[in-house]
User: What shape does this take?
Amino acid sequence: MMTADTGSARGREILLHHLKEGRGSWVSGQFLSERMAMTRSAVWKQIGALKADGYWIESSTRKGYRLVGVPDLLRIEEVRDGLRTRVLGRTEARHYRETDSTNSRARELAAGGAPEGTLVVAEEQSSGRGRRERAWFSPPFLGIYASLVLRPAMPPGEAPRMAILAAVAVAEAIRSETGLPVTIKWPNDVLAGGRKIAGILLELATDMGAVDYLVIGVGINVNVPSGSFPPEIRPLATSVLVETGRAFPRVGLLRRCLESLESWYDRFAAEGFAPVLASWKAMSRMIGQRVVVQVPGRDLAGLVTDVDENGFLLLRDDGGRDHRIFSGDVSFPPGTEKG
Assistant: This one.
């Protein structure tokens, strides 16, 4: 059933479509009223709601309405405008001005039966999370904070493959949209200049020995100035703005991430994990490097020998013993290449 809020959002989406079709020209209130099957007073109220959201719309009693400027907001109407996906971002979608965590909201929706492709985005997170429950710095209107619900037919033991896939897709999207030669640090941190520019949080629920749903959370530092990062992470974090010297529209980068994720997800379903892993290795440069991996209760130092067919890190320690690592934090000895 369509709720009042859902209907209102759909109305704004249709209204924006007609205003954008005008390409900066005047669109009459009568035309909008007829096309949207609502009174001119109702159209005026929708225009007011869009203005309150930051859209720059000129009004004229005789001419109608003209769209002059669009805010850099991650509103669903903007994300879907020009989005080239079939499923991701096309089913259920929620936009929040502020929430504690998009992953938390997506998990609630998934547990309630939300379909594959459900998207949750926020302009700000009060309790953004990274791996191992670390906080993710989420300042308002400066980053991308988004989560997707997927329902792949796979056993839980293969779920780590999806973290590798997400890293490949997000890195590819950042490279394509910004030109930055980002790299990937195992398992799914995206780096620029050796510092973290994006992170991915994978959470899953199982049912009868199979994956019920996955939630893939993506956080990207887009227009965050270097001085805005908290002092404790400033040496470790970067943003598109810092690396390129210019601000980027967040909505275009989010669209590209969704398109890249769907493309890789479809390819994974058709061809298996091998192409995903090959692309990950091409963008990682970790194999053959010395690293220190923090695992529960100890640190393992050694040489990365490979990443296996399930996305596990293979490490040969300084004593010559081989380790297959499911989860851990990787750091690089001083003076070594990062990524």
In short: The chain has three domains: 4-69, 76-284, 290-331.
